[in-house]
User: What shape does this take?
Amino acid sequence: MTDTSSLDAITLSVIQAALQQVCDEMDLTFSRAAFSPVIAEANDRSDGIYAAEDGALIAQGSAGLPVFVGVMQYSTRTLIERIASGETAAPEPGDIYIVNDPYLGGTHLMDVRFAMPVWRDGKIFCWLSNTGHWPDIGGAVPGGFSASATAVEQEGLRLPPVKLFKKGELDPEIYAIICSNIRVADQRIGDIRAQGAALEVGADRLAQVLDRYGDETVRHAIAELRTRAATQMRTLIAPIPDGVYRGEAFVDSDGVVDEPLTIALAIEKKGDTLTFDFEGSSPPCMGPMNSVLATTLSSVYLAMRHIFPEVPLSAGAFEPLIIKRPEGTFLDARYPRPVSGCAAEVSQRIAEAVFAAMVKALPEKVTAAPAGSSGNFALGGHDPARGRDFVMYQISGGGYGGNADHDGLTNGCSTIGISKSPPVEVMEQAFPVLYRRYALREGSGGAGEHRGGFGLSYEVELLRGDARASFVMDHGRTGPQGVLGGRDGRVNEVTVWRDGKAHVPPHLSKEQDIPLKAGDRVCVGTPGGGGYGDPLKRAPEKVLRDVALGYYTADEAEALFGVVLSADGQAVDEAATQAKRGG
Amino acid sequence: MNEKKGINSGSVVVGIDVGGTFTDLILIDSREGPDRGVRVAKTPTTIENQAFGVVNAIRETEVPASEIGLIVHGTTTTTNAVLERQLARTGMITTAGFRDIIELGRRTRPQAYGMTGTFTPVVPRNLRLEVDERMDAAGNVLTPLDEDGVRAAVKALLDQGCVSLVIHFLHAYANPAHEKRAAEIAAELWPNNYITTGHALLSEAREFERGVTAAVNASVQPILERYIARLSNELQGLGYARDFLVMNGNGGMISAAHVAREAAKTVMSGPASGVMAAAFTARRAGVDNLITYDMGGTSTDVALVRGARPAVSNEIEVEYAMPIHVPMVDVHTVGAGGGSIARVNDAGLLEVGPQSAGAKPGPICYGRGGMEPTISDANLLLGRLNSKKLLSVDNPVSVSDVEAIFAKRLGSRLGLSGVEAAGAVLQIANIKMAGAIRMVSLGKGHDPRDFALFAFGGAGPLHAAALARELGIPRVMVPARPGITNALGCVVADLRHDFVRTVNRPVASLDVALVKSVLEEQRVEGEALITEETVQPERIECVHTADMQFVGQTHLINVPLPGPEVDRDALQALFEEAYFKRFKVRLPEIRANLVNLNTSVIGVRADIDLASLIDPAGRVATLAEALNERRQVWFAGDWHDTPVYAREKLPLDAVIDGPAILEQLDTTTVIEPGDQAASDADGNIIITVGAGR
Assistant: This one.
C-alpha cells in the first residue's frame, strides 16, 4: 500500500525534477557517444524509467524522439511478463536485455531497445530502458525501409528479449549473431556501447536520487505523480464540450496494393476522459504500412502531447486517454504482417486523424494538418570513382498547418521526429550526386486566413555509376487537410527523370528499387501545410506580401484569397478585392 | 601583487559594458599619486543611441577623458539588432537553385512538442537573387560564374534600396574563387564596403549555417559601424582621441577601426566579457576550473572554464534557427531569472518559469503592476533581499502585500502559508536551475568536485550557495563587484584570434608534417594580426587543439595538443583518453579521425590588481563593526535570526558562519546555514559548502 498523504507538493516537485534529470542525462549520453548519425545527429532515440511491476512509464527524457512516447512501457511490460512466466531468463545485476520484436511492444525492427533493472537491496526497484534507431538491421533493403515487403522476415533480424550484457559483460555469442545479420557491422559496437553507457549513467544518477530522498519516499512520489499527471490531463480535457469528434486520414497505399488505407477515428469526450475508437479503419494490409498496437497507442499519445505539451510524460498522463484496441484493422498488426512503414509514416497519419478530430473540439489550440511525412528517399548504388558501394538517405520536411494565431511554419520537421535534415554540401561530399535545386515549394501552403507553411522542392542528379532509388513518403494522393474553411496543402510529388523521360511512381509516394544511371534525376516536392480558416478573410496586405515574396502568384492571390492586386503588383486593388470577396 | 608592471600600470584603463538596462563602467587608475585606484559608474543605458550612456558613464567618473589611456567597450548593439530584426536592408546573391537555403533551415521546429512556431529569415525572399555558377564538393568548377548575371543582380538589389550585400555560393569553403570574383564585381558598383562573402567568416561545409552567419554579419555591419563612428565622435568631444577596443564574442578584443569587418563576432560580446572576467578573477585566486553563473532578471548565463580558459564553441545558436558559427565563448542561456513566474499547475504542483514577468510589469515588488509571484518576490518575502534597498522600484509595495499574493495564488492551493510558498518557490527554482546547469556543464563528464561556482549578476549570489549544494560543487566564489563583472571583463580581456582548419583524415594515414605546418601557419597569422593592434600585450600565448572522433562518428571531441609537433600514436592516445574521460567507454576496435586543427593566438595583457575593487580604506577591523542589522531570514522551513553585513566594510580576514547576508550596492550574497564564508586577498568571498559551525 502506498501512503502518499505524508508527501507534500514540494517534495513531489523536487523528485519529479530529479527523475526528469536522470532521463535527460541518459538522452545526452546516448547521443553524444553514439556513432550512427541517425542517433548522434538526428536524435532518433529515447530513454526512460519504467515501473518494476508493470513497466508503466515513470519519466522519459525530454529530448527523446516523439514517436517513442509511451512505446517502451509496452516492451518493458512484455519483458516483465515473460520473465515471470519463465519464457525469458530472469535478470541478475549487470544484465542488459536487447529486444526489437515489433509484436512485443515495439515499432519497426530498426528500433532496438535495451532494458536494465535498477537494483536496490537485491530487488528490482524499477527498469531503465532506451531505444535507438539502428542504421541497418538486415533484411531485403539497406536501412530497412522496404516499400514492398509482405512479411516481417523480409524486413530484417527479429530479436526476442535476450541478455546482451551478462553481469556487465557483452555476450560475444549474441553479439556475433547480430553482426552476422546486419550491414556495416563493424561500427555497431560503438552504438551498442553508447546505448549501454546511457543506461549505466541513468542507474548511477538514479541511485543518487534514491540515496538522497530514500527509496520509500521516491516510491510514494512516483505513485502520487502518476495520479497528479492524470488529474492534470483530466483538467485540460474537462472544459471540452461533451460529444463525439470525428477525424479521418488516408495513407496513399501500403506499397504493394495500390489502394488508399483509411484511418477513421471517433473521439468521444465524456466528463474528463477521451475515448479513441478507430472502428471503420482499413483491414490489415499486404505491404509494410501496418502498425503494431504499441505504435498506434504511442501515435495517439504524441499527438495529444503536441496539443498539451505542458503535461509531463508519464503513464498517468495517458490514463484519461482510453484507446479501444483497433482489432481487425491495419492499426493492430499481428505476426507476420510487415511493419517497416508504421513508425515513419502511419504514425503521422494517426496523429493527423487526432488533430483533425481535436481541432473541432479545441480550435484555438490545434493546427490544421502538417505535412506529416518523414520524406524518406534512399539511393543505393556503386560509386566507380571511389570503388565502393553507398547508401544515401535524404529525409525532408514540409509545411505545417496554419493555426489560430499564425501561418504554418515552412519546412518543419516530421510530426513524429525532431531530426534535422542533412546539408546539401555534406550530401555532395559523401555521395556521387549533385543537387540542382533545394528550394521553397511555391504555392504549396494551403490557403487560409492563416495559410499553411510551404514544403520543399528539390532535384538531385546521379553523377556516376548506377544506383537504385526508393521512396517511402505519403500524402501523394490527398494533401494535408485544411480546417475551418482553409484549403488543403499541396500533395507530395515524386518524378524520376530517366533518359529524359518522366517516371511517376504508380503509388505516387512509394516505390522501391527504381534503376538510375548517371545523369538521371529525381525531383521531389513535399507537401505544404493545411490552411486554417477562410482564405477570403486573410488580410489583403498579407496576401500582397506573400506575392511580393513569390510565395503565390498574383493569379493565385485572386483565385485562392480573392485579393486583386494593382497592375504593377505593388498594391492591393481595394475596390476590386472588395467586389471579389463580397461576391 | 601590487609590484607587477605592464602596459596597464602607470595609466588609466576603462572598461565599459552596455547592458539592456544599465551601462556599467570600471576605471582602473594605476598612475602614481594620491586619489588613484578604482572607480565605477552605473548609468541608464540609452537605447536609441548607446553612445550617450557611455559618455554619461565616463563623465560620472570625474576623470578627464584626455587622461584615459585606453577604453575597451562591450556593446549589445548587434545583439539587439539581430533579436529585434532591426537590421540594415540586406541583399543576397546565391547559386542558382539555392536562394531559399537561409529560409528553409534544416527542417526543424522551435520545440519538440507543439506544431506551431514562426521564423523570419534575416534577408527576405524578394532580396535574395540567384546567378548561374556551381562548384562541386571538391571545389572544381562545374558551371562558370555568370559575371553579367552578378552585375544585374547587384544593380537590382541597389535599386531595391539594399545597403549591405551577401554573396553566398555552394562549396565556397572548398573553392572561394567565384565568391571572390563576384565580390570584386559587386565592389565596382556597391557604394560602401558592406559586402560579406560566405566563406570569409566560416570556411566550413553546411550552407545554412554559413549563409546565416554571413547574412547576420552583413546586416549588422552598417549598424555597428554607425554606432562606432558616433561613439568615436562623442569620445573625441570629451577629449579622448585614441583608438578604442571592442569586445568580441570569443572573449578577445579588437580595434574599433577593424571591428565592423567581422561584425557578427560581436553578437555575443556581453556574456563573453563576463566569462573572461570570471576566468581572470578566479585565476588570480588560484582557481582554474569554474562554472560561471550570471543570473539576471529574465535569464541566466552559464559557461564552463577549464584551466583558466573559457570553453569556446563555433556552433552557437542565438535563437531558434539563428546559428552564428564563428568561435565564441560557449555561453548557455537558461530561461530562469529573478522575474521567472511561479504558479500551481493543473496537477496541483508548483512550477517556476519558463514564463517571466520581464522588466514590465516585472516582479510584484517593482511596483509596476506585476501581480504574479516571481523568484525576486520570494527572495524579498523570505528576508534575503532588503526591502528598503531594492533598485528599479517605481511604487514601493509592502512585504505584507507580497505575502498576501503568495498566500492567495500559491499557498492556498498547496496548503502552505505565503512564506512557506515562497520557500518552496526558491527550492523548485534552485533544483530546476541546477538541472539546467548540470546539462550544459557537468553533464559533459566533468566531476563537480573539481569546480567552483563563480556567481555574479544581480541575482547570482543570492542563489549560488544553494545551487552549489544541489550540484555537489564544494565552493562558491563571489567577486568583489558582481554587478560590474562584464565591464571588468573588458578591462582584463586579452587580444585573441582563433583559427579552424578542416583536415578530416584518419589518424592512421595522417601526414604529421601537414599537422605541424597547419598549426604553425595559424600561429604566424595570429601573431601578425596581434602585431597590427594599437595595444601591445605583455606576451603571446598559443593554444593548439584538435577536434577528433572515432571513424564513423559525427560528434567531435576537442583534444588539447601539447604543441605543433605531435605524432600519430600520441594523437590516438590523447583522443582515447579524452573519450574515456567523457564517456567511460574504450573502443580499441575503432580508429580515430582528426577533423579540425585549431589554434588560438592570445595576446595576454598585464595583470591588473583587483584588491582595490573594494576600497581598502572603507574596511573595518572587526566583523561586528561591519554589521548593518540583524533580521529574520527564512532558511529550510523556519525563520533564523541572521546578521546582515555591509560587504564593503568586511575585514579581509573575516570568517563568517552561515546563516548570514552580505549586502552591497550591486547584489546580495546569501550564506546558508552550515556554510562558511571567508574573503581572499582580492576581496572575493569564498563560500565553502558544509564547512560552517
Q: What stands out?
A: Chain A touches chain B through 88 residues (CB under 8 Å). Chain A is about 30% helix and 20% strand. The two ends of chain A are 69 Å apart (CA to CA).
